[in-house]
Amino acid sequence: MFSWVLQCWSFTSCLCIFVTPVCLSLPLCPSLDLSVCLSHLSVFADRDGISVSSPVISTNPKESGALVTVSQWTAGEPISIFLDPNCPDYSDNFLQWETLQSSLMQALTNHNEEDWEERGLVQKLAEELKVLLGHAHNLRLEAEQLKRGQGVLDQRLDGLQSEQSRIIQVLSDTHSSVINTTTSVYDTLSLSLSVCLCLSSPVVKPRDCSDVMASGILQDGVYSVFPTHDLNGFMVYCDMTTDGGGWTVIQRREDGSVNFFRGWEAYRDGFGTTRGEHWLGLQRIFSLTRFGGFELRIDMADFDNATAFAHYGDFSVGRDSVNPEEDGYPLNVDQYSGTAGDSLLKHSGMRFTTKDRDQDQSENNCAAYYQGAWWYRNCHTSNLNGQYLRGGHASYADGVEWSSWTGWQYSLRFIEMKIRPSTRPGS
């Protein structure tokens, strides 16, 4: 056995394949682009002329064991392959080279078919890619539509939230209005009932809660009273329990539900709910006490449930005044006793001051400065209409203060001011 070593030589008009000791010549047409490379492999045959297996011809440059590989060929061009008669040992190896020629033609034909299959695959891939691009374009359009739709939904959501807030506000206002209307209707009916009872009975209409108690009513609650020279009357809360009862409540603080930082007209006419936090009104307090002879009790509690009270044996607002509003509803108070200490006597003789009517002796408006309304002097030792600050606070003297008991930086939880005639019923 011996080996044949193949070598490749490239010329302008032809490509010769030399196999020692024979040669295969492949003429190339000008229009044919064919590159033929020979793998540096060995072809084996015996010296007795017995042919071995046909040499391998392939279009795959990486195929193992290939004798000839075709790397490029223009499809559709004719190829002619012939054996060079000048090659030595031509006749002895004719059979072998004829096999080589047949294998080479078959390889080129297979390459042509592979090339068309590749082209078909590429064309199919191109068509699928075009479809995919179309889908991608449609998806982008849908995404943009969804984005615009999201914007519209966001706008509608904002609108719904605004409408919700408006409805909640309307319901809140309506709720407050219903409560106020109900309270007003109740007070009016109670007042009408009292008038009817008075008209049908020889009993004198009650001037205050002490008269209500004298008529035999001993239960705390809201009643109609008719002070002297006040034919219309008004509703008050009567305390029939504390210290013998018969007290007419003129102010109450208990939970901070009512704003007490108000102007002159509000304090003149009164505000709040009679059963809850309220200020009876300067004009009504004047109607009750204008002729003197009343006592004042102030009950108070802190946020630790400690309690105290201050009692004044002489109390009136605008006593003997012809025009109490013009006079400023001056305070008269005297004769202190109690457990809370006195924080009111220094205010006696002073006019009432609100944030919009300054009648105190300070350079500043004490009501505006200390967030309240009171008979300020310069400025106060008590501020029972101040802010409801719920216990100790960092600000100075602007809460519900009674300085002789808790100082100027503690806002009380509960305050109730109430009056009754100095001579108790039945005495």
Automatic annotation (TrEMBL):
Domain of life from the UniProt record: Eukaryota
Domain Fibrinogen C-terminal: 200-423
Keywords: Calcium, Chitin-binding, Disulfide bond, Glycoprotein, Membrane, Metal-binding, Signal, Signal-anchor, Transmembrane, Transmembrane helix
Name of this protein: Fibrinogen C domain containing 1
Lipid bilayer topology: Single-pass type II membrane protein
Record's subunit section: Homotetramer; disulfide-linked.
Gene Ontology CC entries for this record: extracellular space; membrane
High-level lineage: Eukaryota, Metazoa, Chordata, Craniata, Vertebrata
Signal peptide (UniProt feature, chain positions): 1-25
Species name: Echeneis naucrates (Live sharksucker)
Record carries keyword Transmembrane helix: yes
Gene3D superfamilies: Gamma Fibrinogen, chain A, domain 1
InterPro entries: Fibrinogen-like_C (IPR036056), Fibrinogen_a/b/g_C_1 (IPR014716), Fibrinogen_a/b/g_C_dom (IPR002181), Fibrinogen_C-term_domain (IPR050373), Fibrinogen_CS (IPR020837)
Single Gene Ontology MF annotation: chitin binding
Localization per record: Membrane
